[in-house]
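[Automated response] Your request has been received and processed.

Submitted sequence:
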Amino acid sequence: YKHLRHCFPFYLVFILPGSTCFRMSIIRKALPSAKRFVPLLSKRYAHSLPDLPYEYNALEPHISSEIMRLHHTKHHATYVNNLVQTEQRIAEAMTKGDTKTAIALQPALKFNGGGHLNHSIFWTNLSPQGGGQPSGDVLQGINKAFGSFENFQKKFSSLCVGIQGSGWGWLGYNKDTNAFELATCSNQDPLEPLTGLIPLLGIDVWEHAYYLQYQNVRLDYVKAIWNVINWSNVEERLSLAVKST
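Generated structure:
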């Protein structure tokens, strides 16, 4: 709590447990000192577009260079820029005691923050040396949860193809049950803050992720992406998730 109070004085009303009166009292106590944290927030918590760990054409023929370049430099970059602007607007609103504006900006925070989080995972979930089947703890967890890798692949693919509109399909780790679960998130909703599942593998099924190459045939895109799944990255994420429990 003390750490969050000093870093995010304007977010406490939304994330701290307890009664409404308790949360609002925290906000009032934080407001007088909020101004001095605005420079700190913009400097310490600034977000930037991560570099891809491979060239834009590295995932061809499964995902084209044109898609990767646009997806990364246009779409992901827009989420990052809008996230920074939204956080700055929230900080400015709270220094003025304008809680209404800060609350009104929460959907933009979730959308752009989620877009940044989701894509930062997505790029590392892919690799030109990817594909095939996982091994070790990932394969063991998949077999335990779904019976076999083939069953998992079918269920995950069907889940992704069946998402209405835009969204994400996820393989997540449930730290309470020590088990894998599949989930979907609409738009850019981030998996862990909304479900508690720790993201291991995400598939972006927004049309901008595939339309230039696969047009409206999402099924073909989902089939193709299995050829570039970076199971080593999924293994690393699982190891970190287990250690965090």
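Summary generated for your ticket: Residues 13 and 20 are 8 Å apart (CA to CA). Residues 1-44 have pLDDT under 50 and may be disordered.
If you did not submit this request, please reply to this message.
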